[in-house]
Each structure stands twice: as structure tokens, then as C-alpha cells.
Amino acid sequence: MKMSVGLRTSSFAKLNRCVPWNLNVRKYVSDQLLADGEVKKSRIPLNIDTNMLKIGFLGGGKMAQALAKGLIRAGLSKGEMMLASCLPTDTGSIETFKEMKSNTVFTNVPVIDHGDVLILSVKPQVVPKVLPEFRIHDNKKLLISIAMGVSLASLEKALPKETPVIRVMPNTPALVGCGATVFARGKYASDKDAEITEKLFSAVGICEEVPETFIDPVTALAGSGPAYIYMVIEAMADGGVKMGLTRPIAYKLAAQTVLGAGTMVLETKLHPGQLKDDVSSPAGSTITGVHQLEKHGLRSAIITAVEAATLRCKEVSSQTEKN
């Protein structure tokens, strides 16, 4: 199987590329995928122009809206070519899609019929109610699921045989075009299906293919990670306020510092530890602050948070599978 390598397009502020994964990681991903056998041919009609796809959103929540806006912004689709299913009471989502010149419906079958690519963006507990509707027309279009905790095996079991499925884990910064997304392909998803998925989600940040076993740790790291960083930003700002800064400027500087540090890691390709050492002068204020962070267990706290969140993801996935 040929795996795509190289730089990915990112919408990160002032960041036009992301760092290619270590080739050993890519080889591991490839080996894991090949272990499941050869991937079938693409279910996407070859005459479809991937620069202008008809997208069907099964669920029109915040992530669906973010992706729709990103696809329009990137020129991969048009609002008029999108259709989303929303609850009649979800007037906010209906209005948002209307502003994008997209239509909404209150049932899923019209969406399934409409899309070249279908994006399942409902809550996990709703998934079992949606999937049987695919059997009405024995539809085998590419289904991209962003439903947390729902495995590829569960999706494939409930869908018409040989339906191509890809499981995606995005994160909330996709709302501002700065997402960190990974995806895992099902056994019937082809290289073409994977390329389409990567192209779609690269419109709202960076996107990488991983084996499905990575999804729970990625959820804990990238999915939950923004919450950890918001706490870091808040704490840094509080420190600035304690030392006399006004709160507005403290928040702005703390947030920009986090953005800048992340950009430095991606742009320079240097190890974060080296970048930390580069700004830690002997007997200076930075190394003094770093010492306090080490003394109070910052690293251990974050590592433990990712570990605990991963275990919780596994619990949720297990509960979802049982239901």
C-alpha cells in the first residue's frame, strides 16, 4: 500500500505547513494497515472532482459547521452543494447552514442520497439509530465518522456490506481552522478514500492517518489537550495579574505565547527540550521559573492527565460497544 508522505497543509495562524511524521511512525501505520489485508478499490466514483464534492452532514452540530466553513474557505465545496440533517429545535445550526447557503432537513435519508461523501457527526448514542437508514438504498458511499467511541468494526457491522468507512478524531480548534485531526480507515476504505478524508480535514488544520489503536490516546492528547492548555493560559495570565499586569493584556500575552511556542516547535522542527534550553540562560529568570514548574510536578501532572483521559476513552468506547 502506498502511504502519502510529506508536508500537510495547515490553517494554523501564520503557519503554512506542519512537520512530517517520523518515517518509523509512518512505517508502523502502514504495517498496521496491511495487517488487516489489502484495501479494496475506491467506492468514490472516479469521475468526481475532489475539489468540489457534494457533502452530506448527518448531524449539523458545531464540528460539522466548522468543517463546512473550512471546506468552503478552502474551495473544496460550496454551501449550495452541502446538505445537513438537524433537529427541528436546533435553530442555531439551521441558521448557520443557511448563512453558508446550505439547506437543512429533519431526516437523514435525503442527506444519504445527496452526498458524494457522508460525514456522521451525531452523538455516539444516536449512531445506532442512524446507521440502519443506510440500508434503505443499500448505500455504499464513503462514510466518515467523527462520533467518539464508535469503532470501525461497529460501524461496518451496522452498514451495508463493504461500505467504506473512515473514523476521524478532530479537535475543537478546528472551529478556528487550527485543528489537529487523525483518521483510521476501515477494511473497505481505499487509498482514494483516505486521500479525500485527509484533504477535507486539512481544510481545518492538520490531518494524519493512524492505526485505529491510536484513536484513544489521540483523543486524550489532542482532543482533550485544548482544555489542558486553556488551564495553562489561565494560570500564566493569573501569574501576570499577580505581578501587576492588567487581565486583558495578561490573557492576550499568555495566549500568544502558547501559539508562538507551538509554532516554533512545528516550524523549526527542533525538540521542545532544546527550544526550552535555548531560552534558559544561566542563573536567569526563565530557568528559575522552570525549576519551580519541575518542583511542583508540571510534567508529571500533564502525563498523568493524558494517561487518565486515555483510560477513560477506552471505558467510554467499551460502554458504547455494549450498547
TrEMBL record:
It is found in: Cytoplasm. Keywords: Amino-acid biosynthesis, Cytoplasm, NADP, Oxidoreductase, Proline biosynthesis. NADP(+) binds at residues 58-63. Residues 212-315 form the Pyrroline-5-carboxylate reductase dimerisation domain. Its EC number is 1.5.1.2. Pathway: Amino-acid biosynthesis; L-proline biosynthesis; L-proline from L-glutamate 5-semialdehyde: step 1/1. It catalyses: L-proline + NADP(+) = (S)-1-pyrroline-5-carboxylate + NADPH + 2 H(+); L-proline + NAD(+) = (S)-1-pyrroline-5-carboxylate + NADH + 2 H(+). One of its GO terms (biological process) is L-proline biosynthetic process. GO terms for cellular component: cytoplasm. PROSITE patterns: P5CR. GO terms for molecular function: pyrroline-5-carboxylate reductase activity. The keyword Cell inner membrane does not apply. The keyword Cytoplasm applies. Gene3D superfamilies: NAD(P)-binding Rossmann-like Domain, ProC C-terminal domain-like. NADPH binds at residue 108. It holds the Pfam family F420_oxidored. Residues 54-148 form the Pyrroline-5-carboxylate reductase catalytic N-terminal domain. Its main location: cytoplasm. Signal peptide: none annotated. Belongs to the pyrroline-5-carboxylate reductase family. HAMAP family: P5C_reductase. This is Pyrroline-5-carboxylate reductase. The lineage of its organism: Eukaryota, Metazoa, Ecdysozoa, Arthropoda, Hexapoda.
